[in-house]
Amino acid sequence: MTTETKTPVTRALFDEVMVPNYAPGKMIPVKGEGSRVWDQEGNEYIDFAGGIAVSALGHAHPALVSALTEQAQNLWHVSNVLANEPMLRLAKKLTDLTFADKVFFANSGAEANEAAFKLARRYHWEHSGPEKNEIIAFNSSFHGRTLFTVCVGGQAKYREGFEPAVDGIRHANFNDLASLEAIISDKTCAVVMEPIQGEGGILPATQEFIEGVRALCDKHNALLIFDEVQTGVGRSGALYAYQKYGVTPDILTTAKSLGGGFPIGAMLTRGDIAKSLTIGTHGSTYGGNPMGCAVSEALLDIVSQPEVLKGVEDKAARFRKHLEDINAKHGIFKDIRGCGLLIGAELVDEWQGKSKDFLNAALEHGVMVLVAGPNVVRFAPSLIVEDELIDQGMAAFAKAVDQLVAG
């Protein structure tokens, strides 16, 4: 009888077996509960990263665990050859809670955006002719990692080495209406924007800009697509950020927090637009799978509650106060901005390019944060993170900043 020897699971194993497109930190998390995470050595961390704005209810929330467990004992997968109950219930809730009449389910934000861009082109191919195919996005935007979505995204570094790029895409400057007005035309089939640019540095659209984009789309008969992959599902303090701005898109994409950690994405749109995706024009093997939809339905029931959304605003103010106190001491931040619990602290000029240093220092002090490019420290915690954990974690983050400033 032989005893199987298990391979030690260490950070070194990543370098041995994984494609090197990521550079993960040294510690490996093994357990999460609420807004706390533990690594292999039993060290505890307070999580203000939220899996990059994904863990809307923290880790292992009882309602999500229950939904997943119950569904796992019944039905995992049937593909889109058949409908399933969790998918239909979730679609009904999303349409009841938003402007949309119709839903397409996918596995991620990139897939949801891919569907949105394809729908926009096909809609105008049917209604306006093939020459109305141009998509306008904004510089510094991020819409995913597929070839189509990196081409629409406004960051050249993500396209490098993957050219030739998809044709028919142009870029304007965010929060610069004149820049958009200069290039939008009757050839434009859609304008796509994040209400708050995420990877581009946590930059909220101004009210004037977002209203102006809507007006220009109406003038040129172009569809307005809101990428709410990062801003959606309560993160802004409204269920979706468009509701906070009072400006309604024609198509909206959502993912990340939608599954609370279980992979799921969705594209929402009006019924008249949805008609262009007829049978066979688009699909997703796993899109709308019962497991993801069951978890998402349970999450949506909680996040859509008015007291949870109000709590997002209150907790955001608490984070900002801590950041302002740190800044009063060190003058390290040029700007503290964002919306709800998507917060960015932009570093002053002398610290430009060093946001990763803050992430690493925070980790050493038991706090998980994010970056949004080289110059912005990002916070995207659970929407229900406890106030005492905010205070405890931000006190630790303050010590990390103290250490960095001291050199």
TrEMBL record:
Write out the residues that bind pyridoxal 5'-phosphate: 109-110, 142, 227-230, 285
Q: Tell me how the cofactor is bound.
A: Binds 1 pyridoxal phosphate per subunit.
Instruction: Enumerate the Pfam families for this protein.
Output: Aminotran_3 (PF00202)
Q: Does the keyword Transcription regulation apply?
A: no
| Entry keyword annotation includes Amino-acid biosynthesis | yes
Q: What is its EC number?
A: 2.6.1.11
Q: Which residues carry this modification: N6-(pyridoxal phosphate)lysine?
A: 256
Misc. remarks from the entry: May also have succinyldiaminopimelate aminotransferase activity, thus carrying out the corresponding step in lysine biosynthesis.
Q: Report the protein name in the record.
A: Acetylornithine aminotransferase
